[in-house]
Amino acid sequence: VDLDTARQELEEFIPHVKNISDSSIRKMAGRDLTRFKEFKKQGIAVKFGRFTQKENHQIRKNVEEFLSLTGIDSAEKLLFTSRYPEDKDTIHRLKTEHHFCEKISEGIPRPWRLIYYRARKMFDPNNYKGRYTAEEKEKLKKYQALHGNDWKKISELMSRSNLSVAMKFSEIKSAINYGPWTKEETQKLMHAVKEVMRRKLKTEDESSLSSLDQSNRDLWIDREKLYQQLPWTEIEAKVGSRYWRQCKQKWNSILTSKMTRGQQLYRGTNGLQAKINLIKRLYETKAEDASEVNWEELSNAIGDVPRAYVQAKFYRLKVSSVPCWQRKTFSEIIEYLFEKKLPELEEKL
Asked: What positions does the domain Myb-like occupy (predicted)?
C-alpha cells in the first residue's frame, strides 16, 4: 500500500492520523491496518487512552504464550533484548520467525506501538523500585551532565526505566514550588500553553492563524484540540518554577473553570438533571470497572466539560449517596445509584 492510500485508510480508525510522521504511517500500515479492519468487521472500535484491566490481562496472556512458544526464558529478555547482548541475535531470530508483532497484539484493538509500550512498562523490573534515595538523585544529576538526555544509557547505569529517570530528572533539575500557584506563575503557564497551541495550529493549518494574529482576543481553539497531548516538559521549562505534572494539573483545572464558567450545572433543577443524566449514562455503559468507561463521551451528560470534571462529580455522588461504597465494586455502585438514588432524584426534579 502506498503512503497516501495507507494514511487515507488509517484515518478511518485514527482521527489524528494527519499529525503522524510518514515513517510511523508505513509501520502502522504493516502492523495495524489489517488488524483494524478485522476488528471493524467484528464491530469493535480502535481504542486509545488508559488500558483496562481486561486488556492488561490479555497482554500478560500474549506475552506468556509467546515465551512458551519460543522458549525465551523471561519477559525481560523478550521486551528488553538489548540488556542481554549474548542472546540478542537468537531472540531477534525467534521474534521474527514466530511473528512477535502479531502475537503480542492479539485480541487488543489498539495500535501495536501502544501495546508494545504498555507491555514494556508492565514487565520492566526496573519500573517498580520505589522512591529515589538522595544518593540516586545525585547520581542521576551526574549522569545527565555526562550523557545529556540519553535516558536509555542513563537507565542502564541506574537500573531504572527510561521513563522513570527522565521524569525524576525533570522533577529535580530546578527549585520546584509546591505551594499555591501565584498570579505570575499562572500567567506564565497560560502564555506557555498559548505559545505551544499557536505553533501546533500553525503547523496544522497556516491559514488558521492569519485572522487570529490580527485580533487581540484569546485564541479560539476547538475543544478537541485542547485535549491533544501537549509537550509538558517544554511548558515546564517556560514556567520555570513548577514540575511538568503540576503544570498539567493546573491547566486542567483552568480548562474546567473556563468551560464551566457561567453554567449553573450543579444548582437547582440543572444540577438534578445533570446527576440523573450521569447515572443513566453510566448504567448504560454496563462497565465492570471505572477504567472501561469513556469519560470523554460522558462529559456530554452534564455539559461541555473536561472528563476530570465528570469523574470528580461521580466521586462526590457515590461518596454522598452509596453506603459503604469502599466495599462495593464499580458495577455495584452504579447499580445502587440507578436503583436507589435515581428514582429519588427524578421525584425531586
From this structure: 124-172, 173-255
